[in-house]
Every structure is written in structure tokens, then in C-alpha cells.
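re: ur question from yesterday

yeah so i grabbed the chain u mentioned. its 270 aa long if i counted rite. heres the sequnce exactly as i have it in my notes:
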Amino acid sequence: MVRVLTWNLWWQFGPWEARQPAILAELERLDPDIALLQEVWADEEGDQAEHLARRLGYHVARTTGADGGPQRFGNAILSRWPIEASEMARLPGEKGKPTHRTVLASRVRTPAGSQLFSVTHLAWQYDAGPLRMRQLEVVVGFVDRLRSDDPATPPVVLGGDFNAVAEADEIRRMTGLAEPYRPGLIFTDCWAAAGDGPGHTWSRDNPHAADALWPRRRLDYVFVAWPRPKPLSNPVSAALAGVEPHGGVVPSDHYAVVVELDDRQTLDHE
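ran it thru and got these C-alpha cells back, copy pasting raw so excuse formatting
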């Protein structure tokens, strides 16, 4: 199995210094093969992604700012396996111009072969569905350009904080319930395929979101591209993580999603 995690780390908000060891402790407990991270901070004192990768012994790819250094509020990919190449793109804002929001993709040398993993973080506003749809036009076009044309190649895995529920139009277009962003490319929602219960990643049960204006929602996803060679990267399980405190502190205002993907190339009878 390949274990993939997506997690919004809540930048330097709330009791952020107390949360850092809790984030590390939860990542150590979960031991993912790939971690797709959002709201990763960097400042004059260091880079959260580099710090986590060093402590965990992982390879790391990071979004960058205009100066070429690590983005102060960005996305990152941590990988147990070597990262062969990475690329990022900026997402549009309300006026169509590039913003600080990005999509990052890394080609990883997994035991099953070279595989593309990607992470993004969409606009958060409750009423920003049309903007999120425009952002996903960029995200899906970006991974479509980078993915292999070989049907036997492991499929793209895309995770992140999409700030939209599964029933929203922007997510329906991802999963084939509405006109797809790119013909011939849709995505399996791993929670819908293998998770139990509502899977709320934003919940007032989390003390950091106890006073939230919004209802409980499932905002964070791991998607696997379709079509793909069966059963490679089929979701086998999906669960929430980052729910319990470490050292008395819940690590983030979002819960993480951890999925296990089938790493078999082909079923024996096929």
C-alpha cells in the first residue's frame, strides 16, 4: 500500500509555536509515504517544510516566492522516496491575475514506478465557488499537461484543501458528476470510495474551529485520476487524522485525511 496524507497546517495562526511539535508528532505517528501539505510557513527563522522533512528523513518539494525562496504561505510535498522533478503554477484571483495560491506537482520514484503527486489550496471564502472553479481549471490543466500518456503509468494523485464540499459544482466537475474540466480526465474522491461517515475535516469539535461561522464540512481531499490501470492506486482506506491533541494541543484547525492506495500493478486474473 501507498499511504498518502493531505493536511492544512494552519500557517502561523493560533498557538502556532505550541502546534509545531504536535504536527511533527502526528506525522511521525502516521508515517505517510507522501504528505501533501498546505499553509506551510517560511520566515527569516526557517522553513517548516524543510524542518519537517529533515526530522522525518523525507525528500521535500516546496512552492517558491517571487524571490525564488520558499513561499511564506505555501504548499509542500514530503516524500519517503526520491523526487525526480517538481513544477508549480500560480492560481488566479478574482480579477484573473496570479495570486499567492498555487498548485505544486512532483514526480516521485515510487516502487511501482514514476508517479505524479500534486497539492493545491483553493480560495476559502464561503461564496467563492465560481473562483474555485476557475482555479481548478488551472489545476486540472496543469496536472493534465504533466501526466504521462502511457495508460500503464501510475495515475496522478492530487490532494489539498479545496474549501468546497463534495456536492459543490467545483467538486462535481472533478469527479465526473458534471462536465469535467478536461475531457477524458476525472478523479476518484478517495473518501467517497473508501471512507466511513461524513469525514468532516472542518468541525466545531476542533477547539481551533469552535467559534466558526460555517457548518461542519468535508473540505480536504485526496483524488486519484481516472482512467487508470486496475487496481493500481485504487483507494483501499480513508480516515481522518490530526483529531487528537499532542501535548495538550490539537495540531491544526483542519483535520488531515490519510488514504491508502493499492500498489499492485495488475490483478492476477487479468
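noticed a couple things. The longest helix spans residues 129-146. also The first strand starts at residue 2 and ends at 8.
anyway ttyl
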